[in-house]
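Schema walk-through. Below, the input block comes first and the output block second. Nothing else is stored per chain. Lengths vary across the set, and this one has 749 residues.
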Amino acid sequence: MNRKIELLAPGGDVEAIKAAVIAGANAVYCGLDNFNARNRASNLSLDDLSGILRLAHEYNCEVFLTLNVVILEQEIPALIKLLNKLVNTGIDGIIVQDLGIFNLVKRYFPTLNIHASTQLTTLNEGQILFLAKIGATRVNLSRELNIDEIKSLTTLAHEHNLLTEVFVHGALCIAFSGQCYSSSVSVGNSGNRGSCSQACRDEYEITAEGNRFPLNLKDNSAYFDLAELVDAQVDSLKIEGRIKNAHYVYTVVDTWRKQLKEFVETGKLLADDSNLHRVFNRDFTNSFLQGDLNKDMFIDNPRDHSVKHALEQSHAVLVEDITSVKQELYSRKNELGAELAEKIKYLSIAKQPLKLAFSGQQNGPLRLTLTIGDNDKAHTVQTSTPLMAANQSAINQVLLEKRFKNFANNNYTVENFDCTGLNDGLTIPFKELTSLKNQAAFWLNNSVETIPFVEVPALINDKKTTGNPTLSILIADEKDKHLCDLTDADVYFKLPESLKKNCNKHIDIFLRNPQLIPWFPAVLIGKDYDESVRLLEQVRPERIVSNNTGIAYKAFKMGIDWIAGPFLNSTNSYALLTLKEELNCAGAFISNEINRMQIKNIKRPENFKLLYSIYHPILMMTSRQCFFQQTIGCKKPAIEDGCMLKCTKATTITNIKGVSFAVDKQKGGYPGIYNHEQFLNIDIVNDHAELFDEFFIDLTNIGAGSKAEQDKALLITHFENILKGDEKAQQQLNQLIRISTNAQYRQGL
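--- output ---
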């Protein structure tokens, strides 16, 4: 096999990165203190990053920086400042979730390679084309995809100069990445900001199936699927674990490196994965990759499984045998730890000492000799203009120290100024000192030109296109179309995530009811994406709302006006600008996760609408797996093709704090978990009516759980009256919707 396959390792702290490098990783991904989706990792300072880059590159290991969170408007200046620094560091790529960063990088920092984060939920062909268009160089495909889907998307990605990477080892979320709000809703820590509290690992009251951790999946391991991944032409095999320690990283990377080496050299796989079981794990599954979504993917314990695995493998029963097995496991762990400590003890990311020696005499050039470390690497630069006798203000050590003290980049510490070789009483134009400094900086930067600081001009806020905000509503059943006759509001019709192949049911609904505006979901995979595209082509609506960038890309290519839905997580002006400039987007929902102040300064692009949902069920997570296997039970051993289209199960789960959540499965939908409260935010109408063109209400019955169905006509009347300023309507609405919250709006990100 001639093609290089990258082994990409996590680096939550400096020691873990050293472990990955010495274990043979081709690349590591790590985060700084800000703007990354693992706030619980130790993360790095900018000085740390410089040392990491030098160390990793010495071992031919690339470094990718995670900037994979949504960005708030007030953070844009700090982000721009950081990007200005990153362009001169030698970083090999940045991992990005927020669409606004794509706009900034493509326009102002084009030397940076952008990798699309798993948080962008990339599942279909249109999303690959979208990411290629907005400037991505690589995409992390969603963990829920099977090998055939991965192969198809990778083929398309390569046709558009995109690399693909796939998670092959580590923790699995049960929810679609980028579409999980459970932590945000329940404890105010958003996964979109790197603060996930892992609600899927929480304990719940024992379910009918006898489980206390019904949402807890085993860890992912594709260790024995390497041949299929190679055949799928995947470019990078990614290991999860930025909150794992160095011992874990070393063991997993070393084990995977040996597997890769064996396959490259012999075409065969190693049969021994025992070391993977000796570090933290929740047991392993490859069911997403194999497309076999079964009950065996779950484990009713989120804690370390390594001891239990060792005991199961040994079949130990007697107390002394159990003790012996445990001791052997701990001994082997210690051996691996000692092996790691020995290998990394001489690895350093400390700044390198730099010595500057100035020399010169009258009528000759001023020379600067730079020496890195203990005289092992030296280089001399000189001026083009000769030194001259000084009438006054001769150059001396004090002046040179002032001019050169802080010129070196983050890799070096200037430790010594030596001016003994410079004759007294000489001068030279200051511009020559600047030239000398630039030559020295060029050499220290590995002979790469330093990119000047970019001043990004302030965005201009376009005026709102309409006067007072209007109401828009969402339905999901044709029987509710009569609501169109009760209001002038735009009526969106929610499409399911799954559509029966070659079935015209929903096409006919829109052809019969041209006033209905198609609303596309966030998750569309394979034939469901294809059927959604077919619907677009057959109906050719004037306008759609899409929560999926693949459908948005298709609408753009067809010349159909489209609105970015709330599940695209728009939180800043540059995200809106990306949508507008790249896909001619007509407007966008602003994220419900941000608060009044975070919304206030978002600037709309020209001729662009802003929308906000003021009433909807609060979706906490949605999954390709089945929530019912571990709760109320299901007779099917695994999810079948018909499950999506036919299943309508519903139940509740209750956490140990006594809070219940609705588990809801609609025909054609993925199973979802919903908060016990509805989202109701009238405050924003009072706070920011002047900013928005539309306020939206969800009148579907999805996610209602056991709550009684509301009088939808009455809801419309109350909401319309609120927009007209009727204070009584707000009181009436609060009496009608008794279990509600706008905590996300009050707290923000």
